[in-house]
Amino acid sequence: MKHLWISLLVALPAMVSAAPAETVTLEVSNMTCSVCPITVKKSLVAVEGVETVEIDLDEKTATVTYDPDKTQEDTLTAATTDAGYPSTVKTD
After folding, report:
1. At what angle do helices 36-45 and 73-82 cross, to 10 degrees?
2. What are the C-alpha distances in Å from 76 to residues 31, 38, 40, 59, 68?
3. Which of 8, 37, 62, 80 has the smallest number of Cβ neighbours within 10 A?
């Protein structure tokens, strides 16, 4: 039991300081067929810190939930661009 408490005390600061997940919508160029979203999604889920990716082919967007302690928006746009699908952060 003593080891369990020590483990919890050691892990507690990491759990408290973790930033909440953020969600961003990317406008993705060049998505023209049903295979394109697969490639875009694969490029995004490969980025460390990405938790979920939802692609909308009709709107040409990718909605990404990620850990801001592990990745940033520019890394996400670079990932899609490197896969052949340039993207930008959608602003409303």
Report:
1. 140
2. 16, 15, 10, 18, 11
3. 8
